[in-house]
Write a structure and sequence with these properties.
This protein has about 190 residues and is α/β, with parallel strands linked by helices. Helix content is about 45%, strand content about 15%.
């Protein structure tokens, strides 16, 4: 099995700090708080929709991204069972909107770097925003991937557009070939 992954909320549970960061910027922009559950739902949507909806100016967007790329919260647990899936795959590739340095650091923290044939950081490699298929077509052409594992339409729509089967992790509200809530060892046989 050849798998395409995202990092945040799929391999490592970074949503705690991402939601915290969003709430900080939201309060700076609007002078009031936003409920964490509402922020989490919005953070699984394309960034341009979120920023437009919440009226984040370019400087606000840059600050949010900078906070997410910092190691502000050491509580980034690895999802149970994910390493077993990574180890069973013939090829693992990441497409992420993180910068290369923060992606590398996060994977090194958990000793996962060696599982990945390539980590494609969209902005740094000249691809357009996540919802465009450029980065996905690049990795599909290079690695002939089978499945994409993601937690949002942002992850799965472009993967499907380039011919991958899709597995939604912890998000029943998006269209996918498979929906899972945890990484169970039986998933390995299903993905083969």
């Amino acid at each position: 099995m050849r798998l395409l992954w995202g990092i945040d909320g799929i391999i490592v549970d970074t949503y705690l700090s991402t939601v915290d960061n969003f709430c900080v910027i939201y309060e700076e922009v609007h002078g009031e708080t936003i409920h964490r559950d509402e922020a989490l739902l919005w953070l699984k949507r394309p960034a341009h929709e979120v920023f437009e909806r919440f009226e984040f100016l370019e400087a606000d967007q840059e600050r949010f991204h900078a906070l997410n790329n910092e190691r502000t919260d050491e509580n980034h647990p690895l999802f149970d069972g994910v390493e077993e899936i990574l180890a069973a795959a013939k090829v693992n590739v990441i497409v992420t909107s993180r910068d290369a340095e923060s992606a590398q650091e996060l994977l090194e923290e958990w000793g996962l770097v060696h599982y990945f044939a390539e980590i494609v950081c969209i902005d740094e490699e000249g691809f357009t925003v996540n919802e465009e298929t450029g980065a996905y077509q690049y990795v599909q052409d290079k690695y002939a991937l089978d499945w994409a594992i993601g937690d949002s339409e942002l992850d799965l729509m472009p993967a499907e557009a380039v011919g991958l089967k899709t597995c939604s992790f912890r998000n029943e509200s998006i269209e996918a070939d498979l929906h899972i809530e945890e990484y169970d060892p039986s998933l390995i046989d299903y993905l083969k």
